[in-house]
Amino acid sequence: MGKRLFDLFFALLGLILLSGILLLCLLIASIDTQSFGLFVQDRIGQYGKTFRIYKIKSMNGVTQKVTPFGRFLRASKLDEFPQLLNIIFGQMSFVGPRPDIPGYADDLPEQDRLLLNLKPGLTGLASLKYRNEEQVLAMQSNPLHYNDTVIWPDKVRLNNWYAQHRTFAMDLTILCYTFLPFLPFDVEGYVGVKDL
């Protein structure tokens, strides 16, 4: 209950404080992508249930390429801020596993599905470790294969560790390092184990 109240209070506060910036970003994204600037997509949430996630659009719908403003949105993570609505609706939390498209978390074997007991998060341990995921994937000859065989299994490991060890203090630590990205944070050192 305490986590839900924390999420609700700060999501409402964030939405109020950032509403002007979000509306401006939505307007610019609409012009930049030549379509309505809000991106809506099905993701896998708590207990494997599907929900609709909100983001500010960063790709042109016709060319399927990231726009110049979209690159700024992604780098600054402003494209993720409409997910404050998902938090208010009770579909997400500030901290938890990032929600994936169908075909990943919902297809995990039973022993790896602990992360599905949690609400997906705006940020999490795996998000901190892979905050530069797009750049890492861009350097691979086969980005999808690298994601599916290296990054995704590691995210599952970290998210399941979080599901077993989470505390309010841990959530505050993760939030601190999320919003202060210039501070170095050794996720593996924090977790303290390499193999679960």
From TrEMBL:
Keyword Transferase appears in the UniProt entry: yes
UniProt entry keywords in alphabetical sequence: Transferase
Pfam families, per database record: Bac_transf
InterPro entries: Bact_transf
Bacterial sugar transferase domain location: 3-180
Residue spans crossing the bilayer: none
Keyword Protein biosynthesis: no
GO molecular function, a single term: phosphotransferase activity, for other substituted phosphate groups
Membership in a protein family: Belongs to the bacterial sugar transferase family.
Protein name according to UniProt: Sugar transferase
Originating organism: Kaistella flava
Species classification: Bacteria, Pseudomonadati, Bacteroidota, Flavobacteriia, Flavobacteriales
